[in-house]
Amino acid sequence: MKKLSEDRKTYCCYLPRVATSTADAIYDAKWKITKSRRMHELLNEMHECRIGHFALEIYSYLQTIHLCYTAVGATANIIAGMLYAIFPDAEIREIEDFTSNISDKDLIATTEVKLGNPDIFPTNTYKDTYCDPLEPPVNAISQIPSNLKVIVQFATQNRLDTTPFHFWLWLQRNIDRIRHIFRAKYWFKKGVRDLLVEKMLEKTTGKMYLLNFRIAVIDPANDNDEAFKASKEELASYVDQIFSGFTVLNHPDVNWFERGPIRFGLRYFKDIQVRALRNPFIVSTKELSSLWHLPNIGGLPNIAMVLSKRYGPPRDLPVDKEDAEISFFAETIYREQHIPFGIYDEDRRRHMY
Fold it and tell me: Cα(226)–Cα(268) distance, rounded to whole angstroms?
């Protein structure tokens, strides 16, 4: 098992509400330059950077859905820089780790999501869906009572392209070719093997990430056993509700998501707290970008938004701490860069009374 170190930091992406321009609509319709596609390209670039272990997360509480990520050190800065490339008007702020204030007094339901077929086969991606693939799960989360906390976590790390790894992929492809002979359903369903081979080769010849996909719903502790039992049933149904939102990416013949058993208690929540990579499966960059990306928020409810736009400071801002002619009185707050600045004494005498 691999986990993030104690100095990990969590960041939230606040999105701007911007009108979709005619140019953006044309790009989306003709060239499919969607937010998922841009995230796909960024994940390819991040793979080349060989950045470390991190987690992409969706967190909901009090009727607000937050798109977050957790990482350590330089990895967090690399992710922020690349996300700003997609959404330059967004704001990425460090927040308190929302898993740190969960205790054994809370009722916690968690589940691990796996793949139904071997992970050399891909699920559907943003190219195969009729809508933004985040819309169904986000809409499902928005229907859950606001007093509950919801966490959807994708703990991930790039899988390096090494000779042993590609030998293992080649071996898995050949093993599956033998297995397919004994899949009775496809004796009567012709043409599926060609599709399976096409999808399998597309995934296994591209860049890949290791992934653990987890869902958790947390409710404050109840005072009596009867209420506690009822809450367990409700939380299990909410976990199912969230999971069903991601089934838009299922392909009945190629690959699909399967929910594991729902477990209750803090000890099953520990992997979420440390963003553990435990027996992960492999996904392509296209699959991962379909599960988590920064969307256009026009059709999505309750997404954490930028309340006012912020712009970078002017290039000639007085920031030299060694200059005795500058009176410092404030600091910049653009993109989490807190730089003290002031005003020249001459300008102060001229403009301030």
Answer: 22
